[in-house]
Fold:
Amino acid sequence: MPVRVVESKQNARLKELRRALAAPGRGARGLVGIEGPKILEEALRAGLRIVTVFLAQGAEELLDALHVAPGTEILRLPRKLLDSALATETPQPIAALVEPPDWTWAHLLGGPQNAAPLVVVLAGIQDPGNLGTILRSAEAFGADGVVSLLGTVSAWNPKAVRASAGSVFRVPFLAVSERECLEELHEAGVKILATTVNAAQPAELVDMTGPVALIIGNEGNGVADVLAAKADARITIPCPGPVESLNAAVAAGVLLYEAARQRVARSGGPAGHRGARR
Structure:
């Protein structure tokens, strides 16, 4: 496989990688940047098209183990030059520009064959680690997809990608307006549940075996009152300990587990055995 040597910070592809990592989704070609052999391997397993691989000199064995497609652009460059483009405190010796999945509402809601979609709606999540963890939990508990509303951090933020452990490549994910989200969910007959602390039903008493969307709010302020008022019901996680609320990612994980538990119980299958579907 041909490998091109890069020696300059002004290289166009290196600049593109730097922009893709710093401002995900805003590049001219719509590509996203990923870093590290494990994340790159997950992208390949998910069938994503790898456009350009950036390889630090001396780390050629990493490329041999990844089996990228023939014809993929491979750039080899000094380690310090590659490090200058990466976002982590301890940069990896390999990175890539990849074409993200092209998800649609049909992927999330599944059409007639999926009578009970389970969707997570993120309203103002700011911590990329929380977002990535929610994506991972969504896959683990069999959710059909995640919707990001305005004000939520990008799923392609490098920290979010790492925290998702590859789920970002496999879980259908849409970034849309609040209006579009509510219209699509209502049209599909999905019951929208806003997670709140007050005036809400305990999760175990809410039927989540049908089509359900769980709104997870901002880490500091929760779900905005204006958005909660548009939901069909409010749901909460009772906490016997002396805390007012849970971390957003923890709350999402608990609610997704409860939804999965209810669905397995109704289907008559073994509890806790549904597992991730992708």
Residues 1 and 70 are 7 Å apart (CA to CA). The chain has two domains: 4-99, 105-267. The domain at 105-267 is CATH 3.40.1280.10 (Alpha/beta knot).
